[in-house]
Amino acid sequence: MAQENVEFPITGKITSVNVKAGDAVKEGDVLCLLESMKMENPILAPVGGTVTKIELSAGQVVEVGDLVAIIEY
């Protein structure tokens, strides 16, 4: 199986996490919401598959390039 490492494109604060390890996702599903510059930005799944790793929590501050999730497909 191949895997996709999903990374944050911008710095911000996580407001909600919508998936957990083991969840099946489709391309375009919202993995989490990120607040940056007073705007909520959805972080979307770039591929469909199964989330194998996601270690986020609401309130966590993240930087560009930090890992959102790993999706196997």
Describe the protein.
The chain is mostly beta strands. The protein has a domain at 1-51: Beta Barrel (OB fold (Dihydrolipoamide Acetyltransferase, E2P)). It is 0% helix and 53% strand. The chain has strands at 3-7, 12-17, 24-25, 30-36, 39-44, 49-53, 61-62, 67-72. The chain is elongated and about 35 Å long.
Average residue-wise pLDDT: 97
Return Rg in Å.
11 Å
CATH class of the domain at 1-51: Mainly Beta
Which band does the percent of strand residues land in? over 45%
- Spatial sequence of strands, sheet with the most strands: 1-8-6-3
Strands, total number: 8
Assembly status:
single chain
CATH topology of the domain at 1-51: OB fold (Dihydrolipoamide Acetyltransferase, E2P)
Quickly count the helices: 0
C-alpha geometry: elongated
What is the helix content?
A: under 10%
Sheet with the most strands, sense and barrel status: 4 strands, antiparallel
> Helix and strand succession?
EEEEEEEE
The unreliable regions are none
What is the CATH superfamily label of the domain at 1-51? RNA polymerase II/Efflux pump adaptor protein, barrel-sandwich hybrid domain
